[in-house]
TrEMBL record:
Protein's organism: Paenibacillus cisolokensis
Keyword Amino-acid biosynthesis listed: yes
Keyword NAD: yes
A Pfam family recorded for this sequence: 2-Hacid_dh
Residue span, D-isomer specific 2-hydroxyacid dehydrogenase catalytic domain: 22-304
PANTHER family given in the database record: D-ISOMER SPECIFIC 2-HYDROXYACID DEHYDROGENASE FAMILY PROTEIN (AFU_ORTHOLOGUE AFUA_6G10090) (PTHR42789:SF1)
Keyword set, alphabetical order: Amino-acid biosynthesis, NAD, Oxidoreductase
InterPro entries (alphabetical): D-2-hydroxyacid_DH (IPR050857), D-isomer_2_OHA_DH_cat_dom (IPR006139), D-isomer_DH_CS (IPR029753), D-isomer_DH_CS1 (IPR029752), D-isomer_DH_NAD-bd (IPR006140), NAD(P)-bd_dom_sf (IPR036291)
Domain D-isomer specific 2-hydroxyacid dehydrogenase NAD-binding residues, every copy: 108-280
CDD domains: PGDH_like_2
Protein's name in the database: 2-hydroxyacid dehydrogenase
Family of the protein in this entry: Belongs to the D-isomer specific 2-hydroxyacid dehydrogenase family.
Length: 304
């Protein structure tokens, strides 16, 4: 018996039910995030779990006496107490890399949306105002990529198509990777001083928390655009507000926030921001990959 909670699981994979049937599984679907008591109830007789963003408690794991495997539908496993699950002999899998290209596409879309004020133009037009905005080209601009992992590199590949000059900062990545992607390996300070566009692709850690703060915004070009599709908290929202309000930088695009969902923020009042609800990974293709890979993780676990 497998409990499946992600909303978009199987939505675009026609054969998925047949796959479970052939493998002799009973599927129980309930769209999450599930409250803890419901999760406990449903897990009480489940052998496997495919989990989305539900917060899995240690108590829920205790209640799951038959549970042998958890497959995260996605990459981040911060909602799962992995160490605790493993101490109970439960194996935990995720689906690395499934949304890299989706997030990279979205990052470029966000950069262009900010540079050309596309959401503001749309809002004006549908409100009956035929008023144009003057934007900034991204062609041949300098993009600074903070964190040169899978998504940072996918952004670099796309930026090349715009003839951008690519700077990247990531002390944990070898020189060869920078060379291969035609990016200049620079220090953090060089990147923020020289970039027209600063794009954040590093995880939230003690080291990266509020890495982009007022002091850093002050060192950026006044025409700079900052976008964050990685994790809220790497950019200080309060300091970003000050920077945008005081014109220290030109504009910003955020897909992630330190507290999600965000209901109110001073940033909502500004005209030079584009804000979206942690949406960068949400594509049909990523959902298909997450469905296939999370299912395979469970089926191969039981067949090995
Ligand atoms: P990744 O692990 O491949 O890359 C992260 C890179 O950051 C690594 O190369 C690492 O060396 C670097 N890094 C870590 N600490 C650093 C530091 N202090 N200074 C400089 N570089 C540092 O991860 P990824 O798949 O490229 O994902 C990047 C981020 O995007 C993650 O935070 C992930 O959670 C986030 N993400 C967001 C969405 C979304 O929906 N918006 C979807 C997927 C991933």
């Amino acid at each position: 018996k497998v409990l499946i909670t992600p909303r978009s699981y199987g939505m675009y994979n026609e054969d998925i039910d047949r796959l479970w049937e052939q493998a002799g599984f009973e599927t129980v679907r309930e769209i999450g995030p599930l409250p803890d008591d419901r999760m406990r109830e449903l897990l009480s007789d489940a052998d496997a779990l495919i989990i989305g963003t539900d917060k899995l408690s240690e108590a829920a794991i205790d209640a799951a006496s038959k549970l042998k495997v958890i497959a995260k539908y996605g990459v981040g496993i911060d909602n799962i107490p992995v160490g605790y699950a493993e101490s109970k002999g439960i194996k935990v899998f995720n689906t690395p890399g499934v949304n890299t290209e989706s997030v990279a596409d979205y990052t470029l879309a966000l950069i262009l949306a900010v540079a050309r004020k596309i959401p503001q133009n749309h809002a004006n037009l549908v409100a009956g105002r035929w008023s144009k905005t003057t934007g900034m080209e991204v062609y041949r601009k300098t993009i600074g990529i903070l964190g040169f992992g899978a998504i940072g590199r996918a952004v670099a590949r796309r930026a090349k198509g715009f003839d951008m000059n690519i700077l990247a900062y990531d002390p944990y990545v070898s020189e060869a990777v920078f060379d291969e992607l035609g990016a200049d390996k620079v220090t953090f300070d060089e990147l923020i001083r020289q970039s027209d566009i600063v794009s954040v692709h590093m995880p939230l850690t003690a080291e990266t928390k509020h890495l982009l703060n007022e002091n850093v915004f002050r060192r950026m070009k006044r025409e700079a655009i900052v976008v964050n599709t990685s994790r809220g908290g790497v950019v200080s929202e309060q300091d970003l507000y000050t920077a945008l309000k005081e014109g220290l930088i030109r504009g910003a695009g955020l897909d992630v926030f330190s507290e999600e969902p965000v209901k109110h923020s001073p940033l909502f009042e500004l005209g030079n921001v584009v804000l979206t609800p942690h949406n960068a990974a949400a594509t049909i293709e990523a959902a298909q990959r997450m469905t296939t890979e999370s299912t395979q993780n469970i089926l191969s676990f039981f067949s090995s």
